[in-house]
Specification:
There is one protein chain. This protein is an alpha+beta fold. The protein contains 6 helices and 12 strands. The protein is elongated and about 100 Å long.
């Protein structure tokens, strides 16, 4: 299954959503990971309803303050659905992560937004704790880190977990946006694309097809059942019932002597 992922800082969902969704449909994108949705708690129901009508599943974390930039979201189309498993909603940044259900292999899909005021990169400490707690699981995490994808804290953080950055995007000339993923997920293609906002789009297509087995699954095997021949003569000596039966009184009496019983 070709699983195409886009990551983009949308800057404003209200201003850029129509163009983004139209482009995603035309390019057969399966998942969109958004940063800076700028959708508040108050506007979240209409945000969710709009995407539901367009055929997208949604997991969204708004910014903690409606007057502050931020907000992250995961959008997926059929056959994928989402089960949210982690969320952080703080002034220094937001993080949302969900398990993707409906494909041949399970994995985590997440979106991260680090606010430029997060000088200690606290949001990435929380993400590191999440990856440590889920060691061995496969994951795809997209982000606007407001920091380089090529050198510094961001690559140092994800390299510790065997992560690979296969696609970057940018606001100006520095690639501060990107998609990191566990090394076990095979990449088909990756590229950087223009977007309706002032950030470019990072795109990766993953091959998530599980190789078929060349032997029969055990759960589909059938144990042969032997049917007795009702017409066959019984072989052996029949024992009269009277020779083996005993009364209740005789049995109770025998119980008083273990050897006799």
């Amino acid at each position: 299954h070709d699983f195409k992922v886009w990551s983009v800082n949308i800057c404003s969902w209200r201003a850029n959503s129509t163009a983004l969704l139209d482009s995603a449909r035309d390019e057969d994108v399966t998942a969109i990971l958004l940063q800076e949705t700028n959708v508040s708690d108050i506007s979240a129901p209409s945000f969710s309803h709009q995407l539901l009508r367009a055929g997208w599943h949604l997991s969204h974390i708004p910014p903690p303050d409606r007057h502050r930039k931020g907000g992250v979201a995961i959008l997926t189309r059929e056959p994928c659905s989402l089960v949210q498993i982690a969320a952080i909603q703080e002034g220094f940044g937001q993080f949302v992560c969900a398990e993707v259900i409906g494909l041949q292999r399970p994995f985590f899909l997440g979106s991260i937004y680090r606010h430029a005021s997060d000088l200690q990169f606290e949001i990435f400490h929380h993400v590191s704790s999440f990856l440590e707690a889920n060691n061995g699981k496969e994951w795809i995490l997209a982000m606007d880190a407001n920091a380089s994808m090529e050198a510094g804290i961001v690559p140092d953080t994800f390299s510790r977990f065997g992560g690979v950055c296969s696609s970057c995007a940018r606001h100006t000339t520095v690639p501060i946006d990107g998609i990191w993923h566990s090394a076990g997920l095979p990449v088909l293609t990756s590229q950087e694309l223009p977007s309706p906002s002032d950030h470019t789009i990072a795109e990766i297509s993953f091959n998530l097809t599980v190789a078929g087995r060349n032997f029969q699954h055990l759960r589909f095997t059938h144990t042969p059942k032997l049917s007795p021949d009702v017409n066959a003569d019984f072989v052996g000596s029949a024992v009269p019932w009277e020779d083996v039966a005993c009364s209740s009184d005789t049995w109770q009496s025998a119980l008083t002597d273990v050897n006799l019983a």
